[in-house]
Amino acid sequence: MTAALLLADPEPAWRGYLERQLASDGFHVLPAAFGGEALALAERTRPDLVVCSELDLCARLREGEPGRTWNRDVPVIVVGPEEADAVDLVRAFQRGADDYLHHPVVYDELLARIRAVLRRTAPPAADTVEVGDLRIDRLARVVTVRGETVYLAGKEFELLSALAAEPHRVFTKDELLRDVWGYRSFTRTRTLDSHVSRLRQKLARLPDDRFVVNVWGVGYKLVD
Over 60: is that where the pLDDT of 149 sits? Predict the structure, then answer.
């Protein structure tokens, strides 16, 4: 799946440069100019990693806020000012940063740090996932319901696998369009809804089977 990076920096030229380079290297980049915008994006899209220039944003991500639901454990790389010293480095780690660089940043080093943090923090993917009566064998690409094989098309299998990564968690439509179809911008499309409809029909073996559930106004989740 394409990793989503939230890039928060107030400098348009630098932010635009990083956005172009990271997109060219296969990342889905979510740019934000200021902290409030970044927090809203973090809550809506649940990125895989945050690159930011403000320690305050890192601290707010870690501490959370009443009524907000972003992932407080999201990996964060802080890019500090040119005059940053050892004290700034320590403060960054105290406020929850996973890595720290300071300007001027060499892009290749930043890219290497991003990939290293993603490798370090990525949970191991299980080869087989069982959710109630549903069993997904990712290696063999085989899905069964109560032992009966269900034949899915490629994107249907990828969609089910994405939902099964965290059963019972609600995945937003933006997340699923990004991770399964690789959409780089959020747009109105019926692609996801039509695939969910077909997936539900194929998984249903009994009248009461409801493996994929719509959470109104948010997205979808997998339940048993």
Answer: yes
